[in-house]
Structures are given as structure tokens and as C-alpha cells.
User: Which sequence fits this backbone?
């Protein structure tokens, strides 16, 4: 009686499959397979294709740890974010991972939740895994902790500002343009009393957004009473508290600009609790344009800042830093912002414009 023999389908790895098996199948040297897997430049494209074809056919899975020992690189990027519960950051992470994978890198994610101890744990994990570079996407810099990464000469990219050190770069956000467009939009609608719910004091991004808001008001010629600025914390709860404070003032603002969309969503809930309608009683503008913004009731007018664009810039800048490519680093450092008008903004209640009957549309026939 013949013994049954097991068959292995194409793409299913065999325990005995290793780099030598791949080399034999591709009819190349083991060194060539190693160079292809480790993305070493100047490999003949025809040979590289044969190697990758053999890898797919055999179902070979390269040993990343072994590759790291050979190349001296982990092929791993770290990305540190502020708050995984904020929908802005999953979009950023998705964009980061897609761009990193396309470049042959894996991603190690850490979330600090604005907590110093959590930040310390993130940094320790990055060091233990010997990351090739770190994207600090926290909109703030905790310099004493990050010095541990710097001491290992690990390239880093930050949002807005970076320490003046070799291998460190910053992706700058053009807060001014988007926020100016938001304030101008409200002014054109007829709003003259515009409030602002800021982010946490001491956080660079929060300070820059507030500075851009104040500058826009000044440019347009509007004043900003001190009580029209509420210090929030980038959360729904902070937005709710801020809106309740502003909307119960003796002379409340007719419009509120929020430091991010989470704040704006919290402000929407506060307005509902107070029996106010958006935009009939108060207009509302957010910042970030997270995915849920367009599905709010009403859909949120907001300043678009692309998390995906920030992520792509971060990955490309890290790779450029690894290559010490000054021109490539410079090419990806500015992220634009722009206003996206939806239905949470309208003319102020009781304004002259609001009292005018709408003109019937002219027939185009």
C-alpha cells in the first residue's frame, strides 16, 4: 500500500524554506536574495523580479529580526500620537502605515493621552525595538524624554517645531490660512461677535491656532473681548463646557470657532442642552475635518487639516533623514489648511440680512 503524501499549495510556506531555498528557486546567489529582501540599491531589476517571484511561489516569509542583524536596520518606524480616541489620529495612523509599508517599513504605534508617564513608556518601547526613526505626532514636544531617542541618534520628525538637532525635522501646519478663511466666512455672513474655544495652554498647536484666530479677527477689524476666549482641552467635554460658558454670557457670541472638531462636537451638545439650534441661534466652526464631521446634524463647517497628508510627509521626511537627503526633507514640510463650508454656519439670528425675504431664482430657460 502506498503512503499518502501531503501536497503543499503554492504560497504555503514549508518549515524548511529558507533564504537558500529561495536562492536555488530563483537561480541566484544567497547574497542576491539578501540584497533584494533588504532593499539594497543597484540590484538588477530582472534578478530582483526572479527573487520576488520565488518568494511568492514558495510562500517564504523573511525573518525581520535576522534582516535587522544583517542590515543594521530594524525597518521599523515608531509613531507617537496624543489620543487614539480622537478620530483625527486613526486617519493619520492609517496614512502613516500605508506609506511606511510601501517604503518597506513596519509601524510601532504609541499613544500618550497627554500623559507624561505614557510618553515615557512609548519612548522605552521605541528604544527596545530599535526603531529606525520616530514620528512624534503629538502637537507638543516633551523634550527631556525625547532626549533619550536623540542620544541614540534616531531621526525624528515633529509637528510644527523640532529641536535644533541633526536628524530632527518639523512638518509645519499652515494654521493661519484655514482659520483666516473661517473667520472671514463668518464675517461675510454678518457675524461680529465671534468666540473661540482653544486647546490646552502650553501646547504649541493650541497656541498657534489661537494666535491665528486673533490675527484673523484683527485683520478683518473685529474686536475680541477677553470673555469670548475659553481654554479647552481638545475633548468633547472641554467643548461642551466652553460652549456653555460662552452661550450663557450676558452678551453671547453669535458664532464660535473651535480648536478642533472634537471640541466642536461637544459644543453642539451644549447648544442642544441650552435649547439652541445650530446654525439658527449660533454658528459653529471646527478644525481638523475628521470623518464624522460631515455626518453630524447639522454637518460641521470646519477647517480641513489632512491627517493623511501629515502622515505621508512624516514617513517621507524620516526616510530622507535616514538618507541625509536635505532636498527631500525640504519638499514635504508644509501642510496646508482650508475651510470646508457645510451647514453649521449661517447668518446671525435677527440680523438685517436675515430679515430680508429670499429673492426667487431667475429662470434660466
Assistant:
Amino acid at each position: 500500500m502506498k503512503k499518502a503524501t501531503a501536497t503543499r499549495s503554492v504560497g504555503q510556506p514549508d518549515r524548511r524554506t529558507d533564504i537558500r531555498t529561495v536562492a536555488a528557486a530563483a537561480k541566484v546567489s544567497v547574497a542576491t536574495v539578501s540584497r533584494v529582501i533588504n532593499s539594497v540599491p543597484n540590484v538588477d531589476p530582472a534578478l530582483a523580479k526572479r527573487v520576488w517571484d520565488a518568494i511568492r511561489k514558495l510562500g517564504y516569509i523573511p525573518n525581520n529580526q535576522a534582516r535587522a542583524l544583517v542590515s543594521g536596520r530594524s525597518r521599523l518606524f515608531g509613531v507617537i500620537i496624543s489620543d487614539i480616541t480622537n478620530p483625527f489620529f486613526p486617519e493619520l495612523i492609517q496614512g502613516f502605515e500605508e506609506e511606511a509599508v510601501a517604503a518597506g517599513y513596519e509601524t510601532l504605534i504609541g499613544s500618550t493621552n497627554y500623559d507624561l508617564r505614557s510618553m515615557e513608556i512609548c519612548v522605552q518601547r521605541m528604544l527596545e525595538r530599535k526603531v529606525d526613526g520616530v514620528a512624534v505626532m503629538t502637537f507638543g514636544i516633551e523634550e527631556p524624554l525625547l532626549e533619550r531617542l536623540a542620544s541614540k541618534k534616531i531621526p525624528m520628525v515633529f509637528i510644527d517645531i523640532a529641536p535644533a538637532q541633526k536628524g530632527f525635522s518639523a512638518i509645519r501646519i499652515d494654521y493661519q490660512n484655514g482659520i483666516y478663511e473661517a473667520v472671514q466666512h463668518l464675517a461675510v455672513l454678518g457675524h461680529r461677535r465671534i468666540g473661540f474655544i482653544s486647546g490646552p495652554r502650553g501646547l504649541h498647536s493650541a497656541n498657534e491656532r489661537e494666535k491665528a484666530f486673533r490675527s484673523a479677527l484683527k485683520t478683518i477689524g473685529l474686536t475680541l473681548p477677553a470673555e469670548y476666549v475659553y481654554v479647552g482641552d481638545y475633548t468633547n467635554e472641554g467643548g461642551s463646557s466652553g460652549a456653555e460658558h460662552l452661550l450663557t454670557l450676558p452678551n453671547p457670541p453669535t458664532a464660535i470657532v473651535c480648536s478642533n472638531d472634537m471640541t466642536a462636537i461637544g459644543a453642539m451638545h451644549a447648544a442642544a442642552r441650552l435649547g439652541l439650534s445650530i446654525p439658527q441661534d449660533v454658528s459653529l466652526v471646527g478644525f481638523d475635518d475628521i470623518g464624522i464631521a460631515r455626518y453630524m446634524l447639522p454637518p460641521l463647517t470646519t477647517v480641513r487639516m489632512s491627517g493623511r497628508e501629515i502622515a505621508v510627509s512624516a514617513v517621507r521626511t524620516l526616510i530622507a533623514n535616514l538618507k541625509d537627503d536635505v532636498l527631500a526633507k525640504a519638499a514635504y514640510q508644509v501642510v496646508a489648511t482650508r475651510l470646508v463650508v457645510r451647514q453649521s454656519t449661517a447668518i446671525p439670528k435677527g440680523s438685517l440680512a436675515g430679515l430680508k425675504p429670499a429673492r426667487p431664482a431667475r429662470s434660466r430657460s
Residues 240 and 266 are 4 Å apart (CA to CA). The two ends are 88 Å apart (CA to CA). Residues 76-174+308-338 form a domain with the Rossmann fold fold (CATH 3.40.50.2300). DSSP finds 14 helices and twelve strands in the chain.
